């Protein structure tokens, strides 16, 4: 079957608002029309996406999966339309995907100073599918953190960083200066694949509310400071590697120039 992008956008609005009235207002359509479109979408997909009550709307398991998939689908469609417009306007554009906590601004500034005619943009890479923006065309380059599926990619190591244990500020281990992996034995860990969260904000909220501990890269932890969370070094936890990544078959001069500039810039930042 063909996926109806209009209905998919309607579904995403309902999934984000968890309310048909607010979603309809955002979409500038009548609520009964939105309800009919969502029911038609469920019939087309032959599965229930939402659980409706008089007061709330919740996602089914299938609905949660579709909502996750929809982020990449709609972003890829928007990127394709933008590329078409860029070609029509003879615009050169470089888009860089970046993993949470990694900063690519210095490299973009250095690149723009040498290529002022090239428009640059960024797109976040979700931590559980970091290479997706490269594979679906949303970005030409990624500044990513391993592990990720690097099949078909050319990667350039940039550096390494430690991982720290992130836990509630009231946790008994907070009194320690540092930890080892053995100190975490028996603790409930929120690292994938134990429990995959849809965002880092969700993960940190779960940690702060006492649902467990997570090992996170230091740059991620520093990007989301909270007074109700504590960070402790784990001396024997393996470091995380940062790298630049591009599709292996892409050899445009513009990309080569950016990789050269970004490698020099990011390795010293």
TrEMBL record:
Q: Which UniProt keywords apply?
A: DNA-binding, Transcription, Transcription regulation
Q: What is this protein called?
A: LysR family transcriptional regulator
Q: Which family does it belong to?
A: Belongs to the LysR transcriptional regulatory family.
Q: Which residues form the signal peptide?
A: none
InterPro entries referenced in this protein's UniProt entry, alphabetically: LysR_HTH_N, LysR_subst-bd, WH-like_DNA-bd_sf, WH_DNA-bd_sf
Q: Which organism is it from?
A: Streptomyces lasiicapitis
Q: Which residues form the HTH lysR-type domain?
A: 3-60
């Amino acid at each position: 079957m063909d996926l109806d992008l209009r209905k998919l956008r309607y579904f995403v609005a309902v999934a984000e608002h968890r309310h048909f009235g607010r979603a309809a207002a955002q979409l500038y359509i009548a609520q009964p029309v939105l309800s009919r479109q969502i029911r038609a979408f469920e019939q087309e997909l032959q599965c229930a996406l939402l659980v409706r009550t008089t007061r709330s709307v919740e996602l089914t398991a299938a609905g949660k999966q579709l909502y996750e998939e929809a982020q990449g689908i709609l972003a890829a469609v928007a990127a394709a339309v933008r590329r078409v417009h860029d070609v029509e306007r003879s615009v050169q554009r470089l888009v860089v995907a970046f993993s949470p906590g990694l900063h690519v601004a210095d490299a973009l500034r250095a690149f723009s100073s040498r290529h002022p005619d090239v428009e640059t943009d960024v797109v976040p890479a979700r931590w559980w599918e970091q290479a997706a923006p490269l594979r679906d065309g949303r970005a030409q380059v990624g500044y990513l953190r391993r592990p990720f599926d690097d099949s078909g990619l050319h990667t350039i190591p940039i550096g390494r960083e430690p991982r720290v244990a992130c836990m509630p500020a009231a946790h008994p281990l907070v009194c320690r200066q540092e930890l080892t992996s053995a100190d975490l034995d028996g603790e409930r860990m929120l690292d994938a694949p134990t429990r995959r969260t849809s965002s880092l904000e969700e993960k940190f909220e779960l940690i702060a509310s006492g649902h467990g501990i997570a090992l996170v890269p230091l740059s991620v932890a520093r990007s989301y400071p909270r007074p109700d969370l504590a960070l402790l070094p784990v001396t024997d936890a393996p470091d995380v590697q940062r790298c630049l990544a591009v599709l292996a078959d892409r050899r445009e001069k513009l990309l080569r120039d950016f990789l050269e500039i970004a490698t020099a810039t990011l390795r010293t930042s």
